[in-house]
Amino acid sequence: MAAPMKSHVPVEGLKVELVIGSYYQVLYGYELKESNNKVELDVSFTNNTHCGSVRSLAVSSNKLLASGSTDENIQLFDLKSRYEAGTLMKHSGTITDIEFYNEFMISCDDSGIICIWKVLGKSFECMKTLSGHKGSVSSLSVHPSGKILLSVGQDKTLRTWNLVTAKRAYTTNTPSMIDIVRWSPDGEKYILCYNGKIDICSMAKAASLHTIKLPGRGHSLDFVFSEIFAVGCENGLLVFVNVNSGVIIHEYKTASNRIKCVSAHELDDCKSLLALATNDGVVELLLISQNHGKVSTSLIAATKHDLRPICLQLIVNTYEESKEEKSTLVSTGCEKAVEKEADKELDTSMDDQNVAVTAVKSKVGKKRKKSHPEEDMSDHCMDKIKKMIGGKGKDSKSDADPVHNKHKKHMKPVDSVKITKQKFSNPKKQHAKHHDQHIAEESD
Hints:
Layout: E1 3-4, E2 14-22, E3 27-35, E4 38-47, E5 54-59, E6 64-69, E7 74-78, E8 83-88, E9 95-101, E10 104-109, E11 113-120, E12 123-131, E13 137-142, E14 148-153, E15 157-162, E16 167-173, E17 180-183, E18 189-194, E19 197-202, E20 207-213, E21 218-225, E22 228-233, E23 237-242, E24 247-253, E25 259-266, E26 271-278, E27 282-291, E28 294-304, E29 309-318, H1 319-324, H2 333-345, H3 379-389, E30 416-418, E31 422-423, H4 427-443
Antiparallel strand pairs: 1-4, 2-3, 2-29, 3-4, 5-6, 6-7, 7-8, 8-31, 9-10, 10-11, 11-12, 12-30, 13-14, 14-15, 15-16, 17-18, 18-19, 19-20, 21-22, 22-23, 23-24, 25-26, 26-27, 27-28
């Protein structure tokens, strides 16, 4: 399916690519192409390295793609050079969520384990594993400061982790299992999605500010602008919510009955791109515009494939950046020297740190019996957490980053992976192969 190109669609000079993880083990790449005054989504690559359905995707700032699967592995791909970059095999369950933060990657699985990975030159090292959830960890989110991690799970708990010490800071019981947790871009609020509802919670007040009833169960959530996020729902509606007012300000209806995944990229204060994929294989790229708090949507391009999508990542670059980019995964002698210096600076283990425990608490509906007393959330405690995440931003070399803390002991890696060289598969051959496989399965 192709959509007529609108003159106001800001695609000129941009390289736009969508990566989709599917139920049938395959990773699909779609690139936005323009020809004859039309824009289309063309298959740019396919990859079937996984031997289970692909459940989670994340892309780092230097275009390293990580995909998690039911095969319990994380596959790494260099999107610049189009090579497979390695496999991480630390997890012992389905990978449910992955997030990059600067040179770190955090992943979780359905066995209840959270792994903190460090990218060092041509290898990934598991610096720490966090355990505490009893059952699957369904979602995680790193605070914009990089000092706090929120995780939610099947055990009906919201857990706050201090990433400075790599220890659990606080546990809050929730009335039901939370499907998605996300920090707002400013770090002042966090979003909880569960049972067809959205809770917008204040970090400072440790309380729920707004509860929004969705038109159906929310499957995926992403911020479109700093104050507006979009939720893909069960009935095919894409719902836009203002994080400050807690009001649904716009709805976009698809022809499908379920939006499985959404991913957004903000172009400027007034325009963003948003990609979505539905349960029946429809993929759409939308232009989202806002003017004085009002949101409008325009379809840029759409396509459909036979593989059931589960997760999606939208990647936007300028063509100038794409031409200048070179793979950073092959270490030079100079880079190796930098790595050795970084190793010397790792002086103390995270576990030996004795930092005051702080907390973030949410109020989601009716509380069950608390595992921690209410006085733990005193003003004094909240002052500490504000102080801990205040000050320097994500790019600063603070104690939140163990590489820059000279008082920490060397942390031996629990697991690591070296870079391999395997070119991405031919998209046309792979598409035909898996299309035939899909037809055969349906006939059975």
